[in-house]
Automatic annotation (TrEMBL):
UniProt cross-references to CDD domains, sorted A to Z: RRM_ABT1_like (cd12263)
Superkingdom to which the source organism belongs: Eukaryota
Biological-process GO terms, alphabetical: endonucleolytic cleavage in 5'-ETS of tricistronic rRNA transcript (SSU-rRNA, 5.8S rRNA, LSU-rRNA); endonucleolytic cleavage in ITS1 to separate SSU-rRNA from 5.8S rRNA and LSU-rRNA from tricistronic rRNA transcript (SSU-rRNA, 5.8S rRNA, LSU-rRNA); endonucleolytic cleavage to generate mature 5'-end of SSU-rRNA from (SSU-rRNA, 5.8S rRNA, LSU-rRNA); small-subunit processome assembly
GO cellular-component term (any): nucleolus
Protein name as catalogued: Activator of basal transcription 1
Keywords, in A-Z order: Nucleus, RNA-binding
Entries under SUPFAM superfamilies matching the protein: RNA-binding domain, RBD (SSF54928)
Compositionally biased region (Basic residues): 203-217
Biased composition annotated in UniProt, kind: Basic and acidic residues: 180-202
Family: Belongs to the ESF2/ABP1 family.
Keyword Membrane recorded: no
Gene: ABT1
Region (Disordered): 1-21, 172-220
Places the protein is found: Nucleus, Nucleolus
Length: 241
């Protein structure tokens, strides 16, 4: 009988252990959203700080926008910072308690700690699962890729438009140069006479008539002189007789 009682107690303990393991496995994880991530703050810092309150699962910190990252690289800074984050606690009850107790409190416990001047910005996400976060991140990645493709396509169109304008400008410059060279040759090889105006024509006619009158007067003068000389000879010869 004693042996039977011992067997029953052992079986009862094993059953209790199994029930406890099942209950432990049935814990529902909870996710906390972090709305502020200080500069130089890394996932390892987050895990070290929050592990004291409960068992931590997965952690994800959202890197800063690629445009901001590009500007920082141009300024000489290669540091990668994060803008927001999500942390998963194995038990959602612990996650709720942590979010309520730490929200708007200093991140460090001592003034000499690195992030003491920063405050926790926490919010427990009800009925939010890690798969929801994965879907959201996948969607954001798809949108980002589409935006990058659109920017690349726009840059290609602008580049092609610029190159086409440059080619057109070069062709127009060559055409203008050929035209200019052709005009210079024509001016050297051809002599164009400008048409006379009506005033010039009338002036030329008047000058011609005046010249004719002067010519007639000159002839008359010559004839008169010859007649005078002839009469002088006649009278001189008669006197001598």
């Amino acid at each position: 009988d004693d042996d039977d009682d011992d067997d029953e107690e052992q079986a009862s303990k094993e059953q209790d252990n199994c029930d406890g393991a099942i209950k432990k496995d049935k814990r529902v994880p909870g996710i906390i959203y972090l709305g502020h991530i200080p500069p130089r703050f890394r996932p390892k810092h987050l895990r070290n700080m929050l592990s004291a309150y409960g068992e931590i699962g997965r952690i994800f910190l959202q890197p800063e926008d690629h445009q901001v990252r590009r500007k920082k690289k141009k300024s000489g800074s290669r540091r990668l910072d994060f803008t927001e984050g999500w942390v998963e606690f194995r038990d959602k009850r612990v996650a709720k308690r942590v979010a309520l107790s730490l929200h708007n409190t200093p991140m460090g416990t001592h003034k000499r700690q690195r992030f003491f001047s920063d405050l926790w910005n926490m919010k427990y996400l009800h009925r939010f699962q890690w798969t929801h976060l994965s879907e959201r991140l996948a969607y954001e990645q798809t949108v980002l890729q589409q935006r990058l493709r659109a920017e690349v396509s726009q840059a290609k169109r602008e580049t092609n438009f610029y190159l086409n304008n440059v080619e057109k400008s070069v062709r127009l410059d060559k055409r203008r140069k050929r035209r200019k060279d052709g005009e210079q040759v024509s001016e050297k090889s051809w002599d164009f006479t400008q048409r006379q105006t009506e005033e010039e024509i009338q002036k030329k006619k008047r000058a011609s008539k005046t010249g004719q009158h002067l010519k007639k007067a000159h002839l008359i003068e010559q004839k008169s002189q010859s007649n005078v000389s002839l009469l002088a000879k006649i009278f001189n010869s008669s006197k001598s007789e």
